[in-house]
Amino acid sequence: ANIKNSKILFVSKHPSRWHEQFFLKFQNHFSIFSLFLIEEAKKNGFRHLYKIINSIAKKEDAEFIFLDSEFFFSFGFEQTSKITKNIPLISLSFDDITFHEINSIQNFSVDFILSADPVGVLKYKEKNIPSSYMALENNTKKFGLQKWNLKRTSVLFFGHLTKGSRFEKINQIRSSGIKVNVHNPAEYRDWE
């Protein structure tokens, strides 16, 4: 099936910089429209968010629903499992390391997971949840990679060093003689 130019309903709790990366990656191939759950919940309450998703998906003729699966206390497996089964439901897991076990519960009701966390992908596969790795930070203009001589870089790390044991791991890699360039996406909060 040719999925190019398909319509995607993108569902998340609120806008974030990761969503812009998602849109940059997919906007040339898909028509994307968004629904932010916190905005909807303020108007209509949390209880029937799945009905709003189903209604918008039907009204807009969505061919895929992409659901940001990052932890959201009011939208879990019970609501996710009530999203229409007539449209493929794809979970997006941007930084799964902190809430993987909680995200996994919700993700048992989706058709597929795209994750920006390669370790998360392996953990989902261990649970027999179909998943694949998707790098988000791939726009050289947004991240200013032209200024780096990447031929002299052995490892290019995108992310926050304060999560988990990332700082220690990066230092361990550096101490073994491997050159590591660290790029923190927080420096790029104001997108062009």
Helix percent band: 25-40%
Q: Report the end-to-end length measured between terminal Cα atoms.
A: 35 Å
| Major β-sheet profile | 6 strands, parallel
Poorly predicted parts:
188-192
Mean of all residue-level pLDDT scores = 78
**Beta-strand residue percentage:** 15-25%
Number of helical segments with 4 or more residues: 8
Total number of β-strand segments? 8
The ordered H/E elements are EHEHHEHEHEHEHEHE
The SS-based structural class is: alpha/beta
Spatial ordering of strands, largest sheet: 2-1-3-4-5-6
Radius of gyration: 18 Å
Can you offer a commentary on this structure?
It contains eight helices and eight strands; from the N terminus they run βαβααβαβαβαβαβαβ. The chain has helices at residues 17-26, 37-44, 49-59, 77-80, 100-107, 118-126, 140-143, 166-175, and strands spanning 7-12, 31-36, 64-68, 89-93, 112-115, 131-133, 155-158, 180-183. The strands form two sheets. The chain has a six-stranded parallel sheet with strand order 2-1-3-4-5-6. Strand 3, helix 4 (77-80) and strand 4 form a beta-alpha-beta unit.
Topology, please?
Layout (H helix, E strand, L loop, with lengths): L6 E6 L4 H10 L4 E6 H8 L4 H11 L4 E5 L8 H4 L8 E5 L6 H8 L4 E4 L2 H9 L4 E3 L6 H4 L11 E4 L7 H10 L4 E4 L9
Parallel strand pairs: 1-2, 1-3, 3-4, 4-5, 5-6, 7-8
Keywords:
192 residues; alpha/beta; six-stranded parallel beta sheet; 8 helices; 8 strands; 19% strand; elongated; disordered C terminus
